[in-house]
Amino acid sequence: MWKAAGVKVLHKSATMRHALKAQEAGVDIIEIVGYEGSIAGGQPGDEVGAWVLLAKATSTLRVPVVAAGASGTGRQLAAALAMGAQGVTMATRFLCTVEAPIDMKIKECMARPEVDERQTTIVLGTLSNATRVFKNGVAEEIRRIERQGDVDFSQVMPLASGGRTKKMWQETGDTQDAMWSCSQSLGVISDIPTCKELLRRMVAEAEERLNHGAKCIINSKL
């Protein structure tokens, strides 16, 4: 139905097996996301980072590939392009922009120096729905419940509910009182720019890095 309507279909995949099935199904673009990202739905054994997944995807898949998972800088954009991707997608980085429609206290938390790439954790893995989230008391309590074994979602639902997270985003701004998804790109966030400032900065840095990389090529005829 989408194809008949002229819609381009992008499928987000955290594994090569899912990417290959999506390609077989006829999607137009595949967004490949590494374990660093805030992807949900992972299973044990799927803990593979973007550095490996992207290299494999761009050398294996026939459709265009977009890189995802903790992107937030021009250096990462340049690396993705150099590896054969068409670009990057970002989620966590855009949360920490002027325009993002969330409480300013959340953005200020994300931009603090002590909130780095180590401030995330994985929850819901025992339910085959592994999700990377901000490391706080709520996430740690979910992990404690999961360690007890034989867990069903009803046991963690009050902690993981979307309503609780929505209240944080829109009302309280209390980053310690909800389970909220974010990637390890927290480690490369240090300010709250406008989207225009962020993208211009990323493009300039990517161009600088790609030009630098081109200078590393040695003319074999010399």
Automatic annotation (TrEMBL):
It comes from the Eukaryota. It holds the Pfam family NMO. Keywords: Flavoprotein, FMN, Oxidoreductase. PANTHER family: 2-NITROPROPANE DIOXYGENASE (PTHR32332), 2-NITROPROPANE DIOXYGENASE-LIKE PROTEIN (PTHR32332:SF20). This is NADH:quinone reductase. It comes from Durusdinium trenchii.
